[in-house]
Write a structure and sequence with these properties.
alpha/beta; two-stranded antiparallel sheet; 6 helices; 8 strands
């Protein structure tokens, strides 16, 4: 199967299971639903935003400003989540992106705290898909809540690429679908001329620098 993830020597990784066609096809089936789902939700979300705006105006005279404010905040957060998810269903558009911003998004999406430093540089990527791929790696490296959900990231610039090393706690248990998720991350990174390697105690992501 294509999109097999590799070890630090460029050989098929033996530390994690390779993806299974049934699991990947299940994820692909869910993904195939996204375009029509996004279209339907977008129209409902627009109607909801208009209703909240109207309620906010009424709340000023009914002393219900707090409830209206909470509703408006929820709508804004929902809109952000929807826009991020919708962008994954569109053709990827690469743009210069500060690496700190990219990995901050990945950390937020996976609920992981990061330590360490990255060099100040821009990478040429489609932000939504690569942030998602990095979030997948963060999630696998960090492990469960009981282990602190913290990863150390370090980076070095070499051959017009940024090489980012991601290390989590020792002995992190891997979920049964680890191979499937790594295959998806590998696909997303490869589509952007990036790469994912699995080391003995860390993952390494390679991203193209902005020319």
């Amino acid at each position: 199967m294509s999109n097999e993830h590799l070890d630090e020597h460029g050989q098929p990784c033996t530390r994690h299971p390779q993806p299974t066609m049934s699991n990947v096809m299940s994820l692909a089936l869910l993904g195939s639903r996204m375009p029509s789902f996004h279209h339907d939700v977008a129209s409902k979300l627009q109607a909801l935003m208009m209703a909240v705006d109207e309620l906010t105006e009424l709340a000023e005279t009914l002393d219900a400003q707090s409830a209206a404010s909470s509703a408006a905040t929820a709508v804004r957060e929902l809109t952000t989540l929807f826009a991020t998810n919708r962008s994954l269903a569109k053709a990827p558009q690469r743009k210069p992106t500060p690496v700190g911003e990219l990995f901050a998004r990945a950390a937020e999406r996976s609920g992981v705290r990061t330590t360490g430093e990255l060099p100040a540089c821009n990478v040429d990527v489609a932000v939504s898909s690569i942030a998602h791929a990095c979030a997948v790696v963060f999630d696998l490296a960090a492990g469960p809540l009981s282990m602190g959900r913290t990863v150390e990231i370090t980076g070095v610039v070499q051959d017009k690429h940024l090489h980012v090393s991601i290390a989590g706690p020792v002995g992190v248990p891997l979920p049964n679908n680890a191979g499937d998720m790594l295959a998806l991350a590998t696909f997303a990174l490869g589509r952007e001329q990036g790469e994912l390697r699995c080391g003995q105690d860390r993952y390494v992501i390679k991203l193209p620098l902005t020319s």
